[in-house]
Specification:
Low-confidence stretches: 8-12
Shape: globular
Number of strands: 15
Structural class: alpha/beta
Number of helices: 11
Helix content: 25-40%
Strand order of the largest sheet: 8-9-7-6-10-11-12-13
Length: 342
């Protein structure tokens, strides 16, 4: 669906049944879901039982954030009108059956914007002031005076101009940094980025080709799509300043980790702060763990106190809209893999 208003199935009962797919821990305050007026029933399922729960269900909450269980169970979804993801990224749901169907997909856009932006600012400050180095020296009981870098006046390139990218741009700008964006549509006069270049390396002499060498910090905050998978590889890293740092709070496969390791070892880039990885948890034998210029964060940049309650609140708002036949808010463009406006 692209309208944002799921159409009732022909012959379906007036009160729909909702399935909640969870990974062993249901949403907090589930009584707010179970007792929602207008629902015929709420069934809770795990990846193993989803196929049994889907027949006849008209709505699905995917609370198991990175599961791909719906792909296998899709043939059992005979009445599904709406799928809501309790996360911002929906790349795990963009399989052909769902994309080609009339089922509407919504995500949890907005919940993580400010927390992730705060994490990015924290990474920038840590690099500029050497806070991670200070902590290491403290652990070694070593007193080592040194000069640090300013934050104000530095240049950041934010790849991804959706809600998260915009929150990052606003916070970095407030810290005195110059910020530009890289997105699907190049433009000038953007209220948060000023200039937005095309987030592609396919056009020599334009877009990222020109923007990467300007940046002191390259922040990857884009959804995972065919256009962004592997975007930060050897070519992009080779265009960065040797003093620049890479920050990834988007999706792990946006960065080619083998190329990043080589760039860090050779000094082609100065450092990296990574909250997402191609494989999670990050394998214990990954060289990223032991590199002193790398900060490894376990996919938690948006997870602040109360985040799960906020996810439920947003879902209930969408659920009330669905039950009332009103347009849904965070409707994903399934061809692009993210909501309109990115």
């Amino acid at each position: 669906m692209t309208t944002g208003t799921p159409s009732p199935s022909s012959g379906a009962p007036s009160a729909p049944r909702l399935v909640v797919l969870h990974g062993g821990e249901p949403p907090p305050g589930r009584e707010r879901i179970d007792g929602r007026p207008g629902l015929a029933a709420v069934d809770y399922a795990t990846a193993d039982t989803l196929g049994d729960a889907l027949p006849g269900a008209r709505a699905l909450l995917v609370w198991d954030l990175f599961t791909e269980a719906l792909t296998a169970a899709w043939p059992k979804a005979d009445a599904l009108e709406w799928v809501h993801a309790a996360t911002t990224g929906v790349d795990n749901l963009m399989f052909p059956g769902l994309v080609e169907s009339g089922t509407a997909v919504t995500n949890s856009r907005g919940v993580f914007d400010r927390p992730i932006a705060e994490t990015v600012l924290g990474f920038v400050v840590s690099f500029a002031k050497g806070l991670h180095i200070t902590r290491d020296l403290q652990r070694e009981r070593t007193w080592k005076w040194r000069e640090t870098e300013p934050v104000a006046g530095r240049h950041a390139l934010v790849i991804g101009t959706g809600g998260i990218g915009r929150a990052i741009a606003r916070l970095l700008s407030a810290a005195g940094m110059t910020v530009e964006g890289a997105g699907r549509t190049p433009r000038t006069g953007d209220p948060d980025f000023g200039t937005v270049v095309e987030a592609s390396l396919e056009v020599p002499g334009a877009g990222l080709h020109e923007a990467l060498p300007r940046a002191d910090y390259v922040v990857a905050a884009a959804p995972l799509t065919p256009a962004t998978r592997g975007l930060i590889g050897a070519e992009a890293l080779g265009r960065m300043r040797p003093t620049a740092r890479l920050i990834n709070v988007g999706r792990g496969p946006t960065v080619v980790e083998e190329d990043l390791v080589r760039a860090l070892r050779s000094g082609a880039v100065a450092g990296a702060a990574l909250d997402v990885f191609a494989a999670e948890p990050l394998p214990t034998d990954s060289p990223l763990w032991s590199m002193p210029q790398v900060i490894v964060s376990p996919h938690m940049s948006g997870d602040v106190e109360g985040w799960k309650d906020e996810l439920v609140r947003l879902f209930l708002d969408e659920l009330d809209r669905y039950l009332a036949g009103e347009p849904l808010r965070n409707v994903v463009d399934k061809r692009r893999g993210y909501p309109a406006g990115h």
